[in-house]
Amino acid sequence: EEPAAETPRLSLRTEKKVRHAAFLWLMMPDYSRLHIPAGRADYVLKVSESPQEKLFLAQPRFFKKNQKLRLYRADMHMHGVGVATGLRREHGKIFEKVVNIKHWRPMGLSHFWLEKPLTLNPGDRLELTCRYDNSPANPRRPMRDGKSVSLDWGWDWNQEMCMTFLYIAAA
How far is CA 50 from the centre of its chain? Predict the structure, then answer.
C-alpha cells in the first residue's frame, strides 16, 4: 500500500477590527495615449494622480479623501522598449524621488520596498514617468519584416506598458 500523502494545512485568523487598511493600487496612464512611433528614440509618458482621491473612490469604507497614507512598495512595469522609469511625490512645488530606475531591464514586475514608509499627505500627488527608446539603437525594439514598428498599449511583448502597483495603507 502507498502511504497517504500529507494534506497541506493553512491556518487563518480573522480579526473583528482592522488596524490599518491596506490596498494594492494600480497606477497607469490612459492607455489610449501610448503610441510610440517607429524609430523614436526618446518617448516619454507621464501620469500624475492623488492617491487619496483614487483610494477613496476605490474603497470609501476604508479610505477618506483627506487622510494621511503610507506608501510601502512600488512594483514598476514596462516591456522591451522601456529604458527608464520613475515615481516621485509632488508636494506643492516640491518634488521628491521615490523610485528612480535609470536603466530599465524588462523582467516582469520590479519590486521596490521603501527603506521606510513614505507619508503621503492630503494634497500630495504621485507622478509616474516611463521613458522609451524605439530607435535602431535599442536592440530590444520589435521588428516586422526587418523594419521597426510603432507600438501601442498591450499585454504582448511587441506592445508596451507603463504602470506601477503601489502598496499603500492608511496612516
Answer: 14
Which residue do the cell numbers 476604508 mark? Answer: 62
H or E segment and range at residue 52: helix 51-58
Q: What nine digits make up the cell of 58?
A: 476605490
Give the whole-angstrom CA distance, residue 116 versus residue 120. Answer: 13
Q: Sign of torsion, CA 152 154 159 164?
A: positive
pLDDT digits (tens, 9 = 90+) for 74-88: 999 999 899 999 999
- The string of pLDDT tens digits covering residues 83-135 is 999 999 999 889 999 999 999 988 767 888 999 999 999 999 999 999 999 99
Residue of 168, 144, 138, 14 lying closest to 78 (CA atoms):
138
In terms of Cβ atoms closer than 10 Å to its own Cβ (0-12, 13-18, 19+), residue 83 is: buried
53/167 Cα distance (integer angstroms):
15
